[in-house]
Amino acid sequence: xxxxxxKGLIVVTAVLAVAFITYFVLNIVFSPYWDSVYTPTGYMxxxxxxxxxxxxxxxxxxxxxxxxxxxxxxxxxxxPDCIDGVPENVAARAEAxxxxxxxxxxxxEIWRAAxxxxxxxxxxxxxxxxxxxxxxxxxxSDKLDYDCELVSINGASLDDIFKAKEGLVSYxxxxxxxxxxxxxxxxxxxxKFLGIYEDKLEYTYSFPDGSTVTExxxxxxxxxxxxxxxxxxxxxxxxxxxxxxxxxxxxxxLESCVYDMDFREFLYEFFLDVKxxxxxxxxxxxxxxxxxxxxxxxxxxxxxxxxxxxxxxxKWRLGPYMMKWESEETRVTHxxxxxxxxxxxxxxxxxxxxxxxxxxxxxxxxxDFATLIGEPCGNMPEGCGExxxxxxxxxxxxxxxxxxxxxxIDREKADQPLTPDIxxxxxxxxxxxxxxxxxxx
Length: 441
Fold this sequence. Notes:
alpha+beta; five-stranded antiparallel sheet; 12 helices; 22% strand
């Protein structure tokens, strides 16, 4: 009896060992998340995030070149466009950047080099960023929150800054590239990266009425996000709702595509209120949504009066292979009849609508479920996405690379941006939707 138990234990141990080794090998060979610093559940990685002390570190030429080689190697392993090798223009840019390094290389020089290399891909999702703490210009953010527009910095227009620095930005459509630059000039590190930081900065803004104002900032006007972090602070919920009965509409604002139990409960209560209110129009605001997960769309469909929808096809880079999936019809399971909304749906978009938010807008548009209003989205609906994040070994520069290629649902528009049915400036999109609802009424 003891011998049988002993043999059984040996068999179980052997099976578990083989399973673990197989899992380990599969991760090394096929998983795009192997050695990434952010790993989804079910995937393996021994890498962890490292935070540099400051942005003033200096590295040797060898260390800087090692970081660039690390980026190129990861590109070749995970990016869909590199399944047959890193494109010649990208590889050539990498060699040129390494050749331009001096004996000592700063963190910013490595950051700029990585950004210029990834710019060559033409993939807005493949970008480089520092991992050292950022210092934010709060006065700048406050101005933008009040619908002001940045006109110039130290006399240089935002348009001129973008044209001079666009090679440091990854984008597919120019408005998104400009939006990225607008974000960079809101931090001291972003200004240094762009090469326009000075001890005194003059920011000129324009107000909605056409008037302008110039404000002067110094280093004291920037605050360190890490040092200012209060452990008792809680992040703002990235979604909100409003029933506007007098306008016969319900407004659902999604500032990011977050999918969790809190969001699911929020959405259920929202559609209960929509049903009780009797409004006949739903407006979904994606204008400030830079992405997240497209599961948001699947959750929304539970409450909309549609029986099925077409999902896009695509390809996923898994080591030396590309796993393809076809565009297919997906049936919708409604939660109950009480919460199903059968009215008109309007989706608001802007050049800041990006990634999964663009995919959500595409699903509405190409399935003919909604009227899109506003500006074209920030990235092409057909293109790369689903990023994996790595960190270079020396400068600890973080960079993200796409792992999937998404096809557009409407194949006749595969090479076109996601353009709204009714184009207008993003700031006027909500009022435009309200005017259309009023006219229909």
